[in-house]
Amino acid sequence: MPSDTKLILKRAVRTERWEHQERGDYNLDRFDQEFRDRLYSDRGREVLRAQSQALDGRNGERNG
Amino acid sequence: MQPEEFIRQVQLLTGSEVKGQDQIDRESLAAILRDDGTPIDCSHLNELLLLVHKDRVEGPFFDHFFGRGCTVGRLPDCIAGFQKAALQLYGNFVFAYRTLSRIRDRREFSEKTAPIRKNPKSELGRFQKRQKKLLEIDLISRELTPFVGYISVRDIPVDLRSCEFLLTAVGAADPGAAWDQYVSLVEEMSNPEERPPLLEIVSNYRLHEPEANLSKFRTFLEQSFDTLSARKQEVQLVRARATKNQDTYLTWDHMDVYFATSMRKAWEYKDLYDFIERLMSADEFKDLDLRYFDPTQAYTDNRINKGLVEALMLKRAYCTVYSVQDTDTLGKDSELASTLAQGKPVIAFIPEVSVNERICQLAGEDPVTILERLRFVLYADEQMAQRLNDEEYGLVDYVQNALADYGSKRIWLSIPDPNAAAKLREDLGEDLVSFCRIIARAEKAIYDKRAQTLKDAHPLALQVNLATGVANGVLVVRTIAACAALLRRIVLSDMEFALEEMAGMWLLRERISGCVYRVVTNDRKLNNCFWNFYLR
């Protein structure tokens, strides 16, 4: 196979990532949750938690 | 008819040699067979058979295959009629003759030959008398069909959660923070494995909006989050409708046609939707109200149940239409095999590509889809790149770079940008058309080769009914019109065949597809071994 042919074949549209892997579980919400968990570092999770609590607090005050 | 020809015909009828030919009274045979117009009834045929040392036949057999108007001259046609029946029912002339010729009871004979005695008019009446369905399918529109896919919709939650992440990072940034401070925060808050795509979204946004600050980015993310949340909700709604459709398919008391395919990419759902829509709206089915399982309309949230549902549909459907695509897959090939193994017909639809029409279709598609189609044809046709001349190679290289660049600069994978796509089309101009011509020509080469392989070369284009041992061949068609005509004949038991002898093998060739449907081999060893495991 000529090298230029290899070049064409090699050039992938997108890098194969976790979200492209085959799964036996087709539940979209579960996929959504697992992907969300993967995105954050420990520091990121802390920030997310803090923002969620602050948001819950503001909503609580408004409802109370 | 000459005695030698009669002896040959008897061999065809019984599927076995006429032994002891030196003891046959050829003079008497010649006298009986001299005039082709001489009537032949059951007792005449039996006397002739005994003259050549063969077993006689009973009345039901004679009446069905020879009938009242039989003459010496018509014997070859009548015997060919028996061969066609034997090929369809038993795949074996010897067994068919032994079994059917000895049946004295007319009802028993009718039962044994029922599958080939169906009357197309009665079959049509049966379809017309069938009650309407209690439940109709809730038709999911073409553009929404990719939402019933498993892989094709993942981009939506991926975009949604990435957007949520970037919004969280904006919320954690100092008011008035600069872009590099924001990027550092994204790096700090993200899992290293998932970091590159997140940073890519930020850089792609900045490429589109070079003057924007973080506050404007927040507004953009908030709008995107709403759009993506709505899209995810739409997916869930479509899936709920498709799940209900699946239940409806399961409850139908009739199921006529199963569509076998494999779909991963969004365009594969749309291609199949178009094919089924065009096929099933053909005039051939207006008076039949056929019921068919359309995989673009059904959804199961579990791979085990999905497999079981499809297996049940394959058992229930009268035939399978196998949609040949760029690549073979385990799923649809298994569905083809399962149908053949049950002795049911399989129509393989392989589109006849009109290059000019195809160029127009391709050029109108999303740039990322055009690039994916190039990947598929490169995968399916490894010779493709080698056939390109220098100029074409340069063009493919240039256009695919431009398409890949467009794909990599999208902010969101699941939100199309029609303006950017239109601009790219305009920039590429005639080069895109030439690129699409190369893909269209490759698709044509792939489909033509697949049709030839399935029609003339692949051993497993002919499989075996596992219950009876009767060979069952795939019927290949290249146009929707031929597919509709053949499908109508299949469901009405009105298929037409030509009987052919090829190097001692007997073939039953279906007329519309020109494909081999049934066979009897002339290999003695294979025949004996094969039928020892089926007919004993």
Strand order within the widest beta sheet of chain B: 2-1-3-4-7
Q: Tell me the total number of β-strands of chain B.
A: 10
Beta content of chain A: under 5%
User: Quaternary status of these chains?
Assistant: heterodimer
Estimated helix fraction of chain B: 55-70%
Which shape of chain B, going by the Cα principal axes? Answer: elongated
* Share of β-strand residues of chain B: 5-15%
Rg for CA atoms of chain B: 32 Å
- The rough form of chain A would be described as elongated
Q: What's the pLDDT, averaged over the residues of chain B? A: 93
The SS-based structural class of chain B is alpha/beta
Biggest contact: A-B, 33 and 47 residues
Would you give an account of this structure?
- The complex is a heterodimer of chains A (64) and B (536).
- Chain A has 64 residues and is mainly alpha-helical.
- Chain A has helices at 3-10, 28-39, 42-63.
- Chain A starts with a helix and ends with a helix.
- The mean pLDDT of chain A is 79.
- In chain B, α17 packs across α19 (390-408) and α19 crosses α21 (430-457).
- With 536 residues, chain B is an alpha/beta fold.
- The longest helix of chain B has 38 residues, at 214-251.
- In chain B, the strands form 3 sheets. In chain B, strands 2-1-3-4-7 form a 5-stranded parallel sheet, with helices on both faces.
- Among the domains of chain B are: 3-126, no CATH class; 148-238; 355-457, no CATH class.
- Chain B has helices at residues 3-14, 26-33, 42-51, 59-65, 75-89, 93-101, 106-117, 120-129, 155-172, 179-189, 195-208, 214-251, 266-280, 303-316, 330-341, 355-363, 367-380, 384-387, 390-408, 418-428, 430-457, 480-491, 524-532; strands at residues 257-260, 292-293, 319-323, 346-349, 462-464, 471-473, 475-477, 497-502, 505-510, 516-520.
- In chain B, β9 (505-510) and β10 form a beta hairpin.
- The chains are: A mainly alpha (64), B alpha/beta (536).
- The A-B interface holds A 1-2, 4-5, 7-9, 11, 13-14, 17-20, 23-28, 31-32, 35-36, 38-41, 43-44, 47-48, 51 and B 150-151, 153-154, 157-158, 160-162, 164-165, 168-169, 171-172, 188-194, 197-198, 232, 235-236, 239, 300-303, 306, 368, 371-372, 375, 378, 382, 385-386, 393, 396-397, 400, 404, 407.
